[in-house]
Write a structure and sequence with these properties.
The two termini are 49 Å apart. By secondary structure, the chain is an all-beta fold.
Length: 245
């Protein structure tokens, strides 16, 4: 396998109480099998065509993610005892308005490459598999791509019997939807002596309620080929509390 990556990471803490971490990775991951434990196996959604010619399986890996951006932060709000504002608040007021933090994680990543399965496997031999033929000059991405029309079926053709087909194991130019997610939360701390403290948390996962879709159906013979029918969970909210001693 070959993995090439360019990564940039930025971490900084401001005197204002803001901790910020930004990480961006630009990469390309190529291989001919997908490894797990002590042995290798083809990636999910794609079977080795010819076990005697693994070199023909070389393509981007199922986990190839050209662009990956993760931004995380934790901000101590400047209100309350020892802060920029509210240093003179009474204990009851400070107990309500002081000691708050705001944190979050923003994740944005390229979609994963797709592997197309033929309508049938007619290689005629045990242990051999097929993938479709690519139709020359036809873009596998529809002009008006949508979750109901994510793959152009005209770009693929069922190979002739006893042939392997020429589509790569995973296509770098045909990918699942991009992933974008933002989780956030606010925290409140109360000091209860030298070693004890109480924490309240309010958290939102997928705070913008942004739809992130799964991969489409990639079986060429299916009636819903190229259609996306599921997605990651919608926004969820939770409350929590911790007592430290």
């Amino acid at each position: 396998s070959t993995y090439n990556a360019l990564q940039a990471t930025y971490t900084h803490r401001w005197h204002s109480g803001l901790d910020l971490n930004v990480s961006y990775t630009y990469s390309k991951f190529m291989d001919d099998v997908q490894g797990a434990a002590g042995w290798a196996f083809p990636g999910s959604g794609s079977s080795v065509r010819n076990s005697y010619n693994l070199a023909a399986e070389r393509s981007v890996d199922v986990t190839d993610t050209p662009h990956s951006l993760v931004v995380s932060y934790n901000y101590e709000l400047p209100f309350g005892a020892g802060k920029l504002l509210g240093g003179g608040w009474s204990r009851p007021v400070n107990a309500i308005l002081g000691g708050w933090q705001w944190s979050g994680i923003l994740t944005a990543k390229s979609g994963l490459p797709l592997s197309i399965n033929p309508a049938t496997n007619n290689t005629g031999g045990f242990g051999f598999n097929q993938r479709p033929n690519l139709v020359a000059g036809v873009n596998p991405v529809p002009q008006n791509q949508s979750i109901a029309d994510w793959i152009n079926p005209a770009a693929f053709a069922q190979p002739a019997a006893y042939t392997f087909g020429d589509a790569p194991r995973f296509l770098s130019n045909l990918r699942a939807p991009k992933f974008f997610n933002y989780d956030t939360g606010i925290e409140k701390w109360w000091g209860l002596g030298e070693t004890r403290k109480l924490q309240f948390r309010f958290e939102m996962f997928n705070a913008f309620n942004h739809p992130d879709f799964f991969e489409p159906d990639t079986n060429l013979g299916d009636s819903n080929f190229g259609t996306i029918t599921s997605a990651y969970p919608a926004r969820s909210v939770q409350f929590g509390g911790k007592f430290y001693w």
